[in-house]
Design a protein that fits this description.
Elements (H helix, E strand, L loop, with lengths): L3 H19 L6 E6 L1 H4 L10 H16 L4 E5 L8 E4 H6 L16 H9 L3 E4 L6 E5 L12 E4 L5 E2 L2 E8 L15
Parallel strand pairs: 1-2, 1-5
Antiparallel strand pairs: 2-3, 3-4, 5-8, 6-8, 7-8
Helix pairs in contact: 1-3, 3-5
Length: 183
């Protein structure tokens, strides 16, 4: 596959940057939304590439595992943007599970591939992850807990698809008298 090295390099850099900027502790969750159509140069939803899905899921899982993080994968609108992850993570986070098995044309090539690569996959309705990676403008922001902080790295694309990322920070509360940093 012509983009395999690029995909592994970019996702490794993306996960590394998110963990550092967002101070994501081991066990933290990063959700990936990805359009293989966009990566391959087609319009989102119009040219799914299952082989790319396998590589992208593998690269995301590898990048997260080596840092002690958990990976999740957003499905497309045909599965209501449900999220694939390890059963254990869904249970630990007390997430609402739903029933479907993602397919390349009903869920997306990346979540379908992730389903097969996870040891005990689960599909959940929604998450509030510590960070997110969006490849191909899939609108993954709905799965980041407030407050989302955009992050840019040296890579702006994966193949032909835009790369957008964000991590979350705790919301600031209070007013002019509030103190946010220890002295």
């Amino acid at each position: 596959m012509e983009w395999k090295d690029e995909i592994f390099t970019v996702l490794d850099a993306a996960v590394d940057a998110l963990q550092a900027a967002g101070h994501i502790a081991p066990g933290g969750l990063i959700v990936l939304g990805c359009s293989t159509s966009e990566v391959a140069g087609a319009r989102i939803g119009k040219g799914s590439v299952p082989e790319l899905g396998v590589t992208i899921a593998e690269a995301m899982l590898s990048a997260c595992r080596k840092r002690g993080l958990e990976a999740a994968f957003q499905c497309c609108e045909h599965l209501n943007r449900a999220v694939v992850m390890e059963q254990r993570v869904a249970q630990e986070r007390r997430l609402t599970q739903v029933r479907a098995i993602p397919q390349p044309k009903a869920g997306g090539s990346v979540p379908a591939a992730a389903w097969k690569q996870l040891s005990q996959p689960a599909l959940v309705m929604a998450v509030q992850a510590e960070a997110a990676i969006d490849i191909g403008d899939t609108l993954v922001g709905m799965h980041i807990r407030p407050v989302a902080v955009p992050l840019r790295i040296e890579y702006g694309h994966v193949g032909h698809a835009n790369l957008v990322m964000a991590y979350s920070r705790l919301p600031y509360v209070g007013g002019a008298r509030a103190v946010y940093e220890e002295e």
